[in-house]
Amino acid sequence: MTTGHTRGEGPTRGEGAFPVEFAELTQSLVNDYDPIELLDRVTAMCVDLLPVQAAGVLLADQWGALGTIASSSEQMRLLELMQLQTDHGPCLECYRTGEPINTLDLTGPAARRWPDFAARAVAAGFRGIAAMPMRLRDDLIGALNLLSEQPVPLSHYEQRVAQALADLATIAVVHERTLRRPELPVEQRLAVLNQRVIIEQATGMVAQHGGYDLSEAYGVLRRRARETGRRLTDLATALVEGRITVSEADRPATK
């Protein structure tokens, strides 16, 4: 399952790659962009730059209830959903306290702290958990989850990178809606959560049509959006509203 940056490769790779990848993501913020796609890129960047194998973002609505908004893998998404269903877990604790959680051993004290989450995560091949708060001024709006196969604490530099990525995720949520109209931050978050729901509906439609699992179906939608030059959210909305057929969403673009 190992796909993330490991310390065996040395810190140079992460420290060298971070400015370049961060610059590419921040460049998106001055253009028209899809916040869901950018948040997915943030989770992928976590796996690429940090010694973790999965990452996910939970975002709060106007009542403070968290929802899944981006995940680097289906395993991560399911673990995030389990936290929401049980109302218990490291990401929820990070969000509620506003304090980062450096990597804890899910087979050690963390197993007693979050027994249900720890058991499910260990069964999926993870032993370490870290979480970073997403903060907008004095308000907490969500949290970034990081799972690793080995329970090795993040270094000071890695913690700074992880928090910078959590901050970038926060900006991605707020800034996109501000470009369109100056809504309140809580309404901006709700709009992004609603976009995620639409994308999940469209993903389910493509999965059923093509016989894909959900990860494959999501990849089909993202690829189709890139091929046609459309935002992922716009493509998903058109599919859910019946303005395009599932067959149109599940086919290569003509050249």
TrEMBL record:
<keyword id="KW-0804">Transcription</keyword>
<keyword id="KW-0805">Transcription regulation</keyword>
<dbReference type="InterPro" id="IPR005561">
    <property type="entry name" value="ANTAR"/>
</dbReference>
<dbReference type="InterPro" id="IPR003018">
    <property type="entry name" value="GAF"/>
</dbReference>
<protein>
    <submittedName>
        <fullName>GAF domain-containing protein</fullName>
    </submittedName>
</protein>
<dbReference type="Pfam" id="PF03861">
    <property type="entry name" value="ANTAR"/>
</dbReference>
<dbReference type="InterPro" id="IPR012074">
    <property type="entry name" value="GAF_ANTAR"/>
</dbReference>
<dbReference type="GO" id="GO:0003723">
    <property type="term" value="F:RNA binding"/>
</dbReference>
<dbReference type="InterPro" id="IPR036388">
    <property type="entry name" value="WH-like_DNA-bd_sf"/>
</dbReference>
<dbReference type="Pfam" id="PF01590">
    <property type="entry name" value="GAF"/>
</dbReference>
<feature type="domain" description="ANTAR">
    <location>
        <begin position="179"/>
        <end position="240"/>
    </location>
</feature>
<dbReference type="InterPro" id="IPR029016">
    <property type="entry name" value="GAF-like_dom_sf"/>
</dbReference>
